[in-house]
Design a protein that fits this description.
- The chain is of the alpha/beta class.
- The protein has eleven helices and seven strands.
- It has helices at residues 12-22, 78-94, 137-149, 156-164, 174-185, 191-205, 211-222, 225-262, 268-275, 280-292, 296-309, and strands at 37-41, 57-61, 66-72, 98-104, 116-120, 123-126, 128-131.
- The strands form two sheets. A five-stranded mixed beta sheet has the order 1-2-3-4-7, with helices on both faces.
- Helix 4 (156-164) runs parallel beside helix 6 (191-205).
- Residues 1-11 and 46-52 have low confidence and may be disordered.
Length: 311
């Protein structure tokens, strides 16, 4: 598993199970009153600054609004500027109301964290904050152990307490608590619930766990069905990616051969434009255009349009 990176941005399967873990739940146990969660929304928004990080999690709620959830182990005023940029781009993409909640791990003890950013007299950006230091992780851990060992019914609240356990106040180090949470989740009898909890714990813990503990988390993860499925899906995705890359390469070569026969002009510019297009359907469209187009300049202009559509 050394080639598996536990990152909520790269591991779609973890997000898939995490989406199931949070589906039809609320976060009221954190003191948040909002509609139930319907699904997880991809966070692949355009990045303006190369130094920017990707937003943590976005959930679609039952009232068709969006919940933007951020997990923080540090506090900086600049974070509000970053969150504001995320929300503006998210709203531009989805055109849905966005509610942003920042969950601070137990490392943060400052009750006076700023939650408002005033850009101008008529422009105020607000987030809500949750301080996890209010939650007793040690007591929660003992309760969860007793529930799992006694094989009692695992309630919705138990599930959420387990998922958020690594963020709570505890005598244990946050890294150790993350490992403990995953180990505990492995003992859950319900296989689906086990996968959902492990995936959500890993996805959230990846935000704040120290690098030297990542391998330990991977070792625990490897011994789960989620880890096995992730590895298998990664293999399948790699195979499919290789197949698609081969198809794309062959189509580009076919187009270039055809153009060399049809046009006498220098094709370097057009070949360069086509090289930037990696969509199979777009390449099929280009081949059809190559057959029908008579004028070289018209053909080049059509290629430019297709390239812009696939940027």
């Amino acid at each position: 598993m050394s080639n598996i990176h536990i990152s909520h941005n790269n591991n779609d399967i973890i997000l898939k199970y995490m989406a199931e873990a949070f589906k039809d739940t609320t976060l009221e146990f954190l003191g948040i009153k909002l509609p139930k969660i319907k699904s997880v929304i991809p966070t692949d928004l355009p990045i303006i600054d190369v130094k920017e990080e990707v937003m943590d999690f976005v959930f679609l709620l039952e009232d068709d609004s969006l919940l933007h959830l951020e997990f923080q182990t540090t506090y900086k005023k600049d974070d509000l500027i970053r969150f504001n940029l995320y929300d503006l781009r998210l709203y531009k993409k989805e055109r849905k109301p966005v509610r942003t909640i920042v969950i601070y791990s137990a490392d943060i003890n400052d009750d006076n964290i700023i939650t408002e950013l005033r850009i101008g007299p008529n422009n105020l950006y607000k987030v809500e904050k949750i301080l996890m230091k209010r939650f007793d992780g040690d007591r929660t851990l003992e309760h969860l152990k007793s529930v799992i060992l006694s094989e009692k019914e695992f309630t919705e609240l138990d599930k959420l307490n387990l998922i958020f356990l690594p963020l709570m106040k505890s005598k244990k180090d946050k890294n150790e608590l993350a490992i403990t949470a995953v180990e505990l989740a492995k003992e859950i009898n319900d296989k689906d619930l086990k996968m959902f909890c492990i995936s959500a714990i890993i996805a959230i813990s990846d935000k704040f766990i120290d690098k030297e503990y990542i391998n330990k988390l991977k070792e625990v993860f490897e011994m789960t069905k989620v880890g096995y499925l992730l590895k298998q899906e990664g293999i399948q995705q790699g195979i499919q990616q290789g197949i698609n890359e081969g198809i794309i390469k062959a189509k580009k070569q076919d187009i270039e051969k055809f153009l060399n026969k049809k046009f006498k002009e220098d094709l370097h510019e057009i070949i360069f434009l086509i090289s930037k297009i990696n969509n199979i359907e777009a390449l099929d469209k280009i081949f059809d255009l190559a057959i029908d187009c008579i004028n070289y300049e018209d053909f080049k202009n059509e290629i430019i349009k297709i390239q812009r559509e696939n940027m």
